[in-house]
Amino acid sequence: MPVAQRGRMTTSLSRWRDGAPFAALLLFAVSSCATASGVRLGLDRYAARPTDHEIPVFESMAELPRKFVKVGRIVGEGPDVVSFESIVAEMQQRARELGGDALVLTGGGLLLLKGTDFGVDVDRTVHGLAVRWK
After folding, report:
1. Which residues contact 64 (CB under 8 A, 6 or more apart)?
2. In whole angstroms, what is the distance from residue 123 CA to residue 81 CA?
3. What is the DSSP secondary structure assignment for residue 11, as one 8-state letter?
4. Whole-model pTM?
5. Which of 36, 62, 77, 100 would be a feasible disulfide site paired with 130, CB 3.0-4.6 Å?
6. From the CB of residue 86, how many other CB atoms can be counted at a distance below 10 Å?
7. For residue 1, what are the domain limits?
8. pLDDT tens-digit readout, 72-115
9. CA distances from 23 to 18, 47, 66, 80, 116 (A)
10. Can you tell me the mean pLDDT for 116-124?
């Protein structure tokens, strides 16, 4: 390949990489992940559960099959393109880290962010409570 063509090809690649398409692709890759954060409740600290510890999900406290203690509040988040299941899976992992045995979903909603550089963004938020069996 002649030197001039190589230079032109590098220039074209640089323009694409440094331009809006690259930024949009990078933003999509980074923002299409579900995340969860949590905070411990009370004074007791519990050891984290193993990663293969099953964390059942309940829709209300009334559904819990046995006595429990509350170990943490958890919030899961993700853009609208991320599935609800992915967000809850991240919340289950956070419940394990807090020493929980189950996750109770307590609420959530959609947050509409207008006026971004890429149009309208919708973020989904799910709230939950990590509990540990007594």
Report:
1. 58, 102, 104, 131
2. 9
3. H
4. 0.72
5. 100
6. 17
7. 1-31
8. 999 999 998 899 999 999 999 999 999 999 999 999 987 776 65
9. 8, 41, 49, 19, 13
10. 72
DSSP state of 56: -
Verify that 44 and 72 share a domain, yes or no.
yes
Is the domain of 8 the same as that of 43?
A: no
Q: For tokens 């090809």, what's the residue?
A: 9
Q: What is the pLDDT of residues 14-71, one digit of tens each?
A: 554 555 554 444 444 444 599 999 999 999 999 999 999 999 999 999 999 999 999 9
Where residue 78 sits, what CATH number does that domain have?
3.30.110.70
100/63 same-domain check: yes
Neighbours of 97 (CB within 10 A): 18
